Amino acid sequence: MEWLLLALTAAFSLATADALTKRYFSSLSAYEMGLTRLAYTIPWLILAFFFIPWPRLDRTFFLSFAVAIPLEALAFMSYMQAIRTSPLSLTLPFLAFTPAFIILTGWIILGETVTLPGVLGIMCIVTGAYFLNLSQMKTGLFEPLKAIFREPGSRLMLLVSFIYSITSALGKLAVLHSSPWFFGISYYIVFTLFMFSFLPAVRGARAGRLLKNPLAGLIVGAVMAVMVFSHMLS
Questions:
Q1: What is the DSSP letter of 28?
Q2: pTM of the full predicted structure?
Q3: What's the pLDDT tens digit per position in 161-208?
Q4: Residue 125 CB neighbours (<10 A)
Q5: Rounded to whole angstroms, how far apart are CA atoms 92 and 90?
Q6: Measured between alpha carbons, how far is residue 218 from residues 15, 17, 168 in Å?
Q7: CA separation (Å) from 197 to 29, 67, 86, 139?
Q8: What is the C-alpha R_g of the chain?
Q9: Which class for 50: exposed (0-12), middle (13-18), buried (19 or more C-beta within 10 A)?
């Protein structure tokens, strides 16, 4: 059951990082807010790089890596926009749809199948996300579902959830052909550089704005580093 503790740690760390990011950096654009979180995580990951073994890498690792990075960028920007524009209580829970999507993507990419208890567990999670909008129930049984699609942050997070079901499967494939530590660190660093490459082309984005609150940034980065390691290990 070690994976369960690691998964819970990853979830708690991500939620904490989201709350801190929204608290201290929501005045920035979605792109700048995302870059800030990425930038302040990098020092912690680079430090960890000196304490991990480097595995032998193969073609499958690099192919999975290359396909996942652009998808991760799209998901990340959608994620930042979602938590910037809508309440966390109506955005973050919709990441619960990722396991439902993974039933398909995990089978296609990894050849993994889900047991009946697993399917029932996923259905419970998705049903819980549905009933987040129970306040709308007075106007009809299906009104909560309609409310989900009227909430911009929820729509974006559903898109993120689907993309993450793909990148999660690709990430596991890369982990199996490297190691959790190496993939988690290298993937995050390359992804950060990829995102920063768009900085000159984004209207109004300025690197100096990322230094708005360095102490808060380093705290967010440390929490995100915990999330990366616990997620990859789980």
A1: S
A2: 0.78
A3: 999 999 999 999 999 999 988 998 999 999 999 988 888 877 777 777
A4: 16
A5: 6
A6: 16, 11, 26
A7: 16, 17, 27, 47
A8: 18
A9: exposed
Residue type, 9: T
The neighbour count for residue 139, using CB atoms within 10 Å, is 11
Q: What is the largest CA-CA distance in the chain?
A: 58
**Whether 80 contacts 25, CB under 8 Å:** no
Residue 135 pLDDT > 80: no
Distance, in Å, from the CA atom of 183 to the CA atom of 165, rounded to the nearest integer, reads 17
Task: State the Cα–Cα distance between residues 181 and 184, nearest whole angstrom.
Answer: 5
Q: How far is CA 207 from CA 8, 23, 131, 200, 211, in A?
A: 34, 20, 41, 9, 8
In the 3-class helix/strand/coil scheme, how is 44-82 assigned residue by residue? Answer: HHHHHHCCCCCCCCCHHHHHHHHHHHHHHHHHHHHHHHH
Contact 25, 36 (CB under 8 A): yes
By the 8 A CB rule, do 42 and 166 touch? no
